[in-house]
Write a structure and sequence with these properties.
The protein has a seven-stranded parallel β-sheet with strand order 3-2-1-4-5-8-9, with helices on both faces. Strands 12-11-10-13-14-15 form a six-stranded parallel β-sheet, sandwiched between helices. Helix 7 crosses helix 10. The chain is built from 21 helices and 15 strands. It is α/β, with parallel strands linked by helices and 474 residues long. The N and C termini lie close together (10 Å). It binds uridine-5'-diphosphate. Uridine-5'-diphosphate binds next to helix 1, helix 16 and helix 17.
Length: 474
């Protein structure tokens, strides 16, 4: 690209939860490794929780208040409160912060703002600073397009549902064949937000508004790679001329960032689970089980997973974080007798270094909620999945993992321990279907490696993005 080059300084601000912070931090590291000056902004609350991370040359952490009090943080709808509070209170502190750091000596002024989804108000920060903005939308490309199309699904009368029977009467299997690049999806795959009876559904409106507001940004950054989602990316290009597919971010980081000074995690990682994996003699014999950072199971669902895993007779490493079961409950909610029944072949952790776990030689399968970060990490590790989606884009990720990429087995929505056990046995037992999934997973792993290696699509796209950030007036 023609134009005068300048020192680029990106101010990054993710929505304050793990699923947004983690990929945004990876993007920050990648930009920094390419010579971009980085300011990573957390909320004060997370800044404390992350034990005040220290920056380094050209990479600083800053924080702004999120406007919540203790009662908000303890409330069941705390994520909604957080979303609304950020919108209401954060624009001025972010603008002030950018101006303050830009006025320091030896620090170039902020030249662009990069946000994750759900903080589209911060596009206004970029507008006020008169710098370009980029959105790192944390889902797959198909997940992004589905979220864009929620608006049309409402306009065309697919959702809200007329009554509760529509959740179980086969209506969710209605084919949706008019979304460009995605000819084979069904209504129920699109997003959890179509499963509402509420004509004023807050979540549905917020999601589609947030996705559609990405059109205000100069560019859209996706944690995916071209080969994985080529059809939908081709179609998306008509609407979003500047899409940068630079994922899997975990793989790109591994390839391009020599030294990461901080492992930032809102939870403490249990190192003992790695030693437990090291001690498993058989390669690919362990099933890794995790439902991410936000999913909440009912005690009944937890029991179906637990007894299904117990019945499978396969070794497994299960992340049961505090809060996985309503309130703050976690391990204490496991059914009586479960730990004793599985003690020689099971390790339960509150949180682990998931990327390392998935890439460990002992791990051969992943029972997942199909969050997008987890899905991409599993693809990069070449590990096939059992998918149990329950929220937002997890349904479409599951659909693509199972029906398009051939690396997933789906559990029925009504969870049954017999099916959990049967799927685990099918995946870990090495039958015909498992062998096919393993082969496919190896192919996608190789493609992910190629995309993020020199000359690969994601590698080139990152360089293109960095060049764009350096061009004055972009
Ligand atoms: N994760 C982790 N340790 C765990 C469980 C999860 O580091 O024990 C990380 C995981 O690697 C991923 C993120 O948490 O990067 C979860 O993101 P995802 O999009 O899969 O799900 P969400 O938490 O947003 O529902």
């Amino acid at each position: 690209m023609e134009g005068k080059k300048r020192a680029a300084h990106a101010m990054l601000f993710p929505f304050p939860c793990s699923g947004h912070i983690n990929p945004t931090l990876k993007l920050a590291e990648l930009l920094h490794s390419r010579g971009v000056h980085v300011t990573f902004v957390n909320t004060d609350h997370n800044h404390q929780r992350l034990r005040r991370p220290r920056g380094r040359e050209g990479f600083r952490f800053e924080s702004v208040p999120d406007g919540l009090d203790d009662a908000d943080r303890a409330a069941p709808d705390r994520t909604v409160r957080l979303y609304l509070s950020l919108r209401k209170t954060c624009t001025a502190p972010l603008v002030d912060l950018a101006r303050r750091i830009g006025a320091r000596q030896r620090v170039p002024p902020v030249t662009c703002v990069v946000i994750s989804g759900l903080v589209s108000f911060a596009l206004g920060v970029a507008e006020e600073l008169r710098v370009p903005s980029f959105v790192l939308w944390g889902t797959s490309a198909v997940g992004f397009v589905c979220t864009l199309r929620l608006r049309q699904l409402v306009q065309r009368g697919y959702t809200p549902l007329k009554d509760e029977t529509y959740l179980t009467n086969g209506y969710l299997d209605t084919p949706i064949d008019w979304i460009a690049g995605m000819p084979t999806v069904r209504l129920g795959d699109v997003s959890s937000f179509v499963r509402t009876l509420d004509p004023t559904s807050f979540a549905l409106r917020v999601e589609e508004e947030e996705a559609n507001s990405c059109a205000r940004a100069q560019g859209l950054i996706l944690n995916t790679f071209d080969e994985l989602e080529s059809d939908v990316l081709d179609a998306l290009g008509d609407e979003f001329p500047r899409v940068y597919t630079i994922g899997p971010l975990a793989a790109a980081m591994h390839r391009r960032v020599d030294h990461v000074a901080h492992g930032l995690s809102l939870w403490e990682e249990d190192a003992a689970c790695m030693a437990w994996l090291d001690a498993r003699p058989e390669p690919r014999s362990v099933l890794y089980v995790s439902f991410g950072s936000l999913a909440v199971l009912s005690p009944g669902q937890l029991a179906e997973f637990a007894w299904g895993l117990a019945a499978s007779n396969r070794p497994f490493l299960w992340v049961v974080r505090p809060g996985l079961v309503g309130g703050d409950r976690g391990m204490d909610a496991l059914p009586d007798g479960f730990v004793a029944a599985t003690k020689n072949r099971c390790f339960i952790a509150e949180w682990c270094a998931q990327e390392q776990v998935l890439r460990h030689r002992a791990v051969g399968g992943f029972l997942t909620h199909s969050g997008w970060n987890s899905t991409t990490e599993s693809i990069w590790a070449g590990v096939p999945m059992i998918c149990a989606p329950g929220f937002a884009d997890q349904y479409i990720n599951c659909r693509y993992a199972c029906a398009e990429w051939g690396i997933g087995l789906r559990l029925d929505e009504e969870l049954r321990r017999e099916q959990v056990a049967a799927h685990v046995e099918e995946l870990m037992g090495g039958g015909k279907k498992a062998e096919e999934m393993k082969r496919n997973a190896a192919v996608w792993k190789a493609r992910a490696e190629a995309a993020t290696g020199p000359g690969g699509s994601a590698y080139e796209n990152l360089d293109r993005l960095v060049e764009e950030l350096r061009v004055e007036g972009s």
